[in-house]
Structures are given as C-alpha cells and as structure tokens.
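With this grant's support, we have settled on a layout for protein records. One resulting record is reproduced below.
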Amino acid sequence: MTLLAGKNAIVYGAAGRIGTAVATAFAAEGARVFLAGRTRARLDEVADRIRAAGGLAETAEVDALDERSVDEHAAAVGPIDVSFNLIGHGDVQGTPLVDMTLADYERPVVTAVRTQFLTARAAARRMIADGRPGAILFFGGAGDPVREFAVGGLQVAFHALEAMRRQLAAELGPHGIRTVTLRTGGIPETLPADFAARAEIEQSIAGKTMLGRAATLADVGATAAFVASDRAAAMTAATVNISCGALVD
C-alpha cells in the first residue's frame, strides 16, 4: 500500500527543483498533489509528468507571500493533509555580511517567516476545522555558522523558521497536527549549472559527509513522503537529518 493514499498535499514552490522532487514523490505514494506557484506554465509541466506516471496533480497560481492568495487557494483545495512550503527566499550568497546591503540581508528572513506563517496557518486552520490530523513540513533547519562561503541572511532565516516550527508543534499538537523540518546540509543538484563555485561547493558538501556523497533530490522526496505519512504519526517537534552524515545532531 502506498504511503499517502487518499491524502491531499499542497506543495508551494512546486516548480522549483526541490518542490518538483517532493511533489513527484508525494504523487508516487498515492497523494493528490496541489502544485502551487507563481508560474502556471512550469507547474503544468510538472503536473503533466506526474499524471503521465499515473499520479494525481492539480495546479494553481498562488502568491505564497500574499495572505488572500494563500487563504483562498487553501479553501479551494478542500481537506488538507500535508502542507510543504518550498518557495525560494531570495537570499543573496557570496557577499560577506560586512559588504551586504540591509535589503539583501533581511530579504530571506522576512520572506521565509512571512510565507511559512501564511501557508502553515492556512493548512492548520483547515485541518482543525475538518478535525483532520495532518503534517506541516519545513525545509532548512538551524545550523552552525558557515565559514567557507558567505550565505548572507539564509541561516538567520532558517533559525527563525525553526522557532516558528517549535511553537506550532506545541500549539497544534493537541489537534493531531505535526510539524517537522527536513535538513540536508546542501543539495548540489539545486545549484545553477553556471554557478562559478559549483564544483567547489559540491566537493565541500560531499567531503563533510559520512557516506561520501551529498543528499539528492530523490532522497528529499522519499524522506518527505515518509514523514508526511501515517507511519511517522509519532513524529513532531522534530528535525529529520538527511545530510548523509554531514550534520551531526
């Protein structure tokens, strides 16, 4: 039996590399996936591939930073079992903090907190109203300072999201709603092909792991599907480490 049979899952940022991997894995495990994002054409391409493989997928243009857009889409979806926000945060990397503008530094923090609050709230409200236990997933996780590369406000954004996730876990637990973060330590497949430091970053990520390789998009999708399923029903207020041993808890 598939892990997510009969479940409805919203994936925000589903046209991105990670979003596509997660949506595809959810559909392969039997979920009806609702692909949300700002570019309908790219979402439709992902949906077509999912349907061609026998999965169920629907698409919608949703601005995950806009309260009305998020709430109206969640209401239109109907019952919600899983929500995973994977939109980009607009972070600027490669510039030391002392050389960075305030706007570039704070953008990922403000963006991450705003969008995750809106989408998590929308899902939780629906789950509570329907008396339907569910899972709200986060991506990133708090981590140690990065010395090798200038990552701007990205780590600050991840720490802020972890604070939100912990509070949501405490408040939503009595309703049977779980919140879990996935941490990877870096996924080389998500780096632009023409990124100047790509090879260096790939080697750095793999070199820190215990398995001699970095996490893949397939790893993220498979793990997300398990965490979202009833087999992980006892898992909340938790961080799932899928870093191949790069991150030691």
